[in-house]
Amino acid sequence: MDGTERIDDIEMYYEVRGEGDPLVLLHGGGGVGGNWRLLFAEPPAGFRLVIPDLRGHGRSTNPSGQFTFRQCALDVFALLDRLGIGRFCAIGLSMGAKALLHAATQQPDRIEGMVLVSAAPYFPEQARAAMRSVTPDNRSEAEWAQMRAWHRHGDPQIREIWRQVNAFAVSYDDMNFTPPYLSTITARTLIVHGDRDPLYPVSLATEMYAAIPRSYLWVVPNGGHGPIFGDRGAPFVQTALEFLRGAWTSP
Domain with 66 in it: what CATH number? Predict the structure, then answer.
């Protein structure tokens, strides 16, 4: 099933696939919900996948042109409320993982378990440097072609996404999670991080692991940003689903 819901000022596109406990999949920046088919070609047994295009991405709109991870989390909660979903599990990649940090601190009781892939509690300088370098005018033809395949509202939408990435370089209040704030997260949390991530050093993953009470840390050797695709896809899916199903217990 797919559909579109009016969420505050946006039209939010989503897909629902499978039967069972709700599992929300939040894509990375510049991506779309359909990217998750690379890992979940079919819904996993026992889970009902809820896969939105986040604000301003894919088929979802964002007429204000404003984007914060905080608002992104609120959008997701509003969508789940419309779908009658209370408590849920979730997997978030990069942008989606940052939105999950907000979700898990905004409404801690709603999230039973979550997997954060390439998350960060704040933007370090190397990430800000990369963000400063992003403009719509220095993207390659291949990048334009890929973005046009994913995002359905034309080149203005794509330019806005890249402008938002650029604006993150000077944003300090949206992603600013201190250890005491992270300690309010009650969800079982698996942190997945590449040890060669060029944007977020693995030290940020260990900071989150130390601060989030019921957390586990999986450092992917020789893994970059988003180290869960290609040959790593099947091991990631198996491990993430075992974790979310509650197969792991603390020693």
Answer: 3.40.50.1820
| Cα distances (Å, whole numbers) of residue 202 to 119, 155, 173, 207, 210 | 10, 35, 22, 9, 13
Contact 180, 103 (CB under 8 A): no
Residue 43 lies in a domain: yes
Q: What is the pLDDT of residue 249?
A: 74
d(CA 224, CA 9): 35
The candidate with the shortest Cα–Cα distance to 134, out of 173, 172, 169, 93, is 169
Q: Which domain holds residue 15?
A: 2-123+175-244
Structurally, how many domains does the chain consist of? Answer: 1
Q: What is the pLDDT of residues 131-169, one digit of tens each?
A: 999 999 999 999 999 999 999 999 999 999 999 999 999
Chain Cα centroid distance, residue 129: 21
Polymer length of the chain: 251
166 domain-assigned = no
Instruction: Assess if residue 41 is contained within a domain.
Output: yes
Establish if 112 belongs to a structural domain: yes
Specify whether the CB–CB gap between 222 and 195 falls below 8 A. Answer: yes
The answer to whether the beta carbons of residues 244 and 115 sit under 8 Å apart is yes
